[in-house]
Every structure is written in C-alpha cells, then in structure tokens.
Specification:
- By secondary structure, the protein is an alpha/beta fold.
- The chain has 2 domains: about 1-165 and about 345-355, Glycogen Phosphorylase B (Rossmann fold, 3-Layer(aba) Sandwich), CATH 3.40.50.2000; about 185-330, Glycogen Phosphorylase B (Rossmann fold, 3-Layer(aba) Sandwich).
- It has 16 helices and 13 strands.
- The protein has helices at about 10-25, 45-50, 65-85, 95-105, 125-140, 145-155, 170-180, 185-190, 205, 210-225, 235-245, 260-270, 280-290, 305-310, 320-330, 345-355; strands at about 1-5, 30-35, 55-60, 90, 110-115, 140-145, 165, 195-200, 230-235, 255, 275, 295, 310-315.
- The strands form 2 sheets. A 7-stranded parallel beta sheet has the order 3-2-1-4-5-6-7, sandwiched between helices. Strands 10-9-8-11-12-13 form a 6-stranded parallel beta sheet, sandwiched between helices.
- Helix 1 (about 10-25) packs across helix 7 (about 170-180), helix 4 packs parallel to helix 5 and helix 10 packs across helix 15.
- The longest helix is centred in the first third of the chain and has 19 residues, at about 65-85.
- Bound molecules: uridine-diphosphate-N-acetylglucosamine and uridine-5'-diphosphate.
C-alpha cells in the first residue's frame, strides 16, 4: 500500500496527477493530510476542483512555529503509519509536511519516495532548503524533475540507483487543467489579456520582514505604472496577516484579491503580461505557460527557468525589479519548458509498481 502525505496548496496541486495515476492503475493507496493548510481556499477548493478523494486521515496540525507544527505532524503521521503499515510513503516538495512525513516513515523503516527531489537554493535561511535537503537524505527513491537535480543529489553522495529523472508533476497538472479553465474569468475580473501583471508573494523571508515586503510593493507599483497596467495579487493568508500586522495600506495600482482556485489561477496566470513572484510553483508554471517571470528573490532552486530564459532573479530592490521587468518583456518567449512533457506521474507510478513487485 502507498501512503500519499500532503498538507499544503502546492502539494495538493502537484500530487493531484499522482493521485489520479494511483486511481487509474488501481493501486492501493490512501491520502494522509497533515492539515498544515486548512482555509477553504488553500485546501478543500483544490480537492473539489481537481476531483480528489477525501483524505483518509486529517491531522489538523494547523499553523504554528516550525518546531511546534512539524512536531505535531511527526507524531500524528507516526501513529497513522504504524496502524496502516504502508510499504511506501510518497511526499512532494519542501514544506514542513514533507519533512515530517519523510522523517516519520524513515524511522519506521518504511520506504520513502520524494517527488521533486534534488532542488537546492543553497540558501539555508529558507526553511524549505532545510526541509528538502533532509527529506532527500531520508528518502529511498528520489524522483528528480530534471537532470540537473539528479546531478545535485549525486554530488551530495546519494546513490545513483535511488535517483529517477521523471520531470515535474506540475507539468501534468498544468496540461490536465488548463483546458478546463473557464474562459470568462478575466472578463469577470475586469481584466484584458496581456494587459495586467500577476503578483504572488508569500515567502517567509520576504513577507515577514516589513522592509522587504514594502520594497516588493514599491517595485510592483513602479512596474505597474511604467507599463500602464494594473497588478493583481491573489494574496496568500500569511502575507495578508503580515500586511495587517505592519499596518500597510495600499493605494494605487495593486489590486488585492483572495487566493484563487486552481483553474482561475491558471487562467489569470496564462493571460498575464508578466508575472512577479517569489513562489516556487509559479516560477515553473510561468515557464510552462510561456509567460515572462521576474522572481522577487536573490536565488532560486529552479535555475532551469533562468537558464531557458523564462525567468530573471530580481531580489527586492524596486529599481532592480523594474529593470528586470523591462529585460524580461524584451525577450523572445519561445523558451522550452525544462520540466518534462507532462508524464511525470505516469513515470513515478511505473517505478513505484516496480518497487512494490520486488
Ligand atoms: C508553507 C510552506 C511553504 C510553501 C507554502 C505554500 C513551510 C515551512 N512553508 O508556507 O514552503 O511555499 O506553504 O503556500 O512548510 N494560514 C491560513 N490558512 C491556511 C494556512 C495558513 O490562514 O490554510 C496562515 C496562518 O496565519 C499561518 C500562515 O498562513 O500562520 C503561514 O502558514 P504556514 O503553513 O506555516 O506557512 P506558509 O507560509 O503557508
Ligand atoms: N495557486 C493557486 N491560487 C493562487 C495562487 C497560487 O491555485 O491564488 C497555485 C499555483 O498555480 C501553483 C501553486 O499554487 O500551482 C503554488 O503554490 P504556492 O505559491 O503557495 O507555494 P510554492 O510553490 O511557493 O511552494
């Protein structure tokens, strides 16, 4: 039996092709949700829209300090794994849920498969960097999205035989859902194709720091004014909370909206003139959708996007954000998506079956 452990918005989206694959192949599996994300628009909306079965377990771990949150998940996951005795646990990405899932399973001698293994920003101030490194080193099977991720894992001493280059399941998710995206959403929002900027920002190191967060807002405002188009920002609950805490009051060109469901988000992303983001998944999706991206960070664990030319790292200096937007918009958009052809879940499913048959 396979245990799919997930807990946050990007994990639900990126695991959804894996769950569909388990259903298609009639594999025996169950979903364990840690409850790291719990608001309707960060969690349930994706289960409904992507037609995913309800999780068999939800640990309701909720929000908290890193240790507190991870600790709750670790002890909850351990109990479920002891009861269910799966032969393999699958985790995806770099959140606290992933760390807890990989660690709990490894200590119980249950095989761990890490989907999206081998990403490195080389910035240990990011909680995600710690999570992804530890998860990779606890894992028995590492599903690397690109050859580059595989190389990074080999350099860290991980055995070649454990690593499989599969592509990233985000490509599967985009291909499967883009065609379902409602066509009148932009109209409803009062937006015209290629006449607005899409913004997402939620990284702890950006939005928990008032100066960095304010710089980001200033940069967005300047880009929006220079291009003469509005900026739309479906705001992550962490960022909303921080804005309120810092007493930020925006006027002008930045339109804050609630987090979107996946189909509407894909629609607004595909139609954007430019994406400004600090999200990992959004850097990948912009690359896949052919939309120019400026990343509001100094580094990225998705350097493939920078190499193919779909993304520029700007950091948070407003002048550099504006300059990066100019450079990105001047580029030819015919880059090639480096994350695979949308068959990652199928490949991972085949490998998992092979492992189970051993
Ligand atoms: C987490 C991940 C991050 C990932 C992001 C995806 C870690 C360390 N961080 O960050 O890597 O990019 O998810 O979106 O695992 N909140 C709600 N409703 C929710 C969830 C959160 O209101 O459903 C608010 C709470 O105020 C909470 C804050 O957001 O304190 C942060 O949530 P948390 O899960 O700790 O981290 P994220 O910033 O969401
Ligand atoms: N996303 C969404 N609605 C939104 C913002 C993002 O559905 O309002 C999706 C987006 O398409 C991508 C994923 O959420 O697939 C990215 O998640 P997030 O930025 O929260 O986390 P990260 O990828 O940085 O870990």
């Amino acid at each position: 039996m396979i245990s799919i452990i997930l807990g946050t918005r990007p994990e639900i989206i990126k695991m959804s092709p894996m769950i569909s694959e388990c259903q298609r192949q009639r594999m025996d599996y169950f979903i364990l949700h840690t409850g790291q994300h719990y608001s309707y628009n960060m969690d349930k909306v994706f289960f409904e829209q992507l037609e995913l079965p309800e999780a068999k377990y939800n640990l309701d771990a909720g929000s908290g300090m890193h240790g507190e949150q991870t600790g709750k998940m670790l002890s909850g996951i351990e109990k479920v794994l002891i009861k269910e005795k799966p032969d393999i646990v699958l985790v995806q990405g770099d959140t606290n849920t992933v760390l807890a899932g990989a660690l709990a399973a490894a200590k119980l001698h249950i095989k761990v498969g890490h989907v999206e293994a081998g990403l490195r920003s080389f910035d240990r101030r990011m909680p995600e960097e710690i999570n992804r490194m530890l998860a990779d080193h606890c894992s028995d099977y590492l599903f690397a999205p690109t050859g580059r991720s595989k190389e990074l894992l080999l350099k860290e001493g991980i055995d070649d035989a454990k690593i499989f280059v599969t592509g990233n399941t985000i490509v599967d998710a985009v291909f499967q859902n883009l065609k379902l995206a409602k066509s009148d959403f932009l109209n409803e929002m009062g937006l015209k194709e290629k006449e607005y900027i899409l913004v997402t920002a939620h990284r702890e190191e950006n939005v928990d720091d008032p100066d960095r967060f304010m710089n980001i807002f200033n940069g967005i405002d300047m880009v929006s004014k220079e291009l003469g188009v509005p900026a739309v920002y479906p705001i992550h609950p962490r960022s909303r909370k921080m804005m309120e805490k810092f007493g930020f009051n925006l006027d002008g060109n930045i339109k804050l909206i609630e987090p979107l469901d996946y189909l509407n988000f894909l629609k607004i992303e595909a139609g954007a003139k430019l994406v400004l983001t600090d999200s990992g998944g959004v850097q990948e999706e912009a690359c896949i959708l052919g939309v120019p991206c400026v990343t509001l960070r100094d580094n990225t664990e998705r350097p493939e996007t920078v190499e193919v030319g779909s993304n520029i790292l700007a950091g948070i200096d407003p002048d550099i954000i504006v300059e990066s937007a100019r450079r990105m918009l001047a580029r030819d958009k015919s880059w090639k998506n480096p994350f695979g052809e949308g068959k990652a879940a199928e490949k991972i499913g085949r490998i998992v079956k092979m492992i189970q048959a051993r």
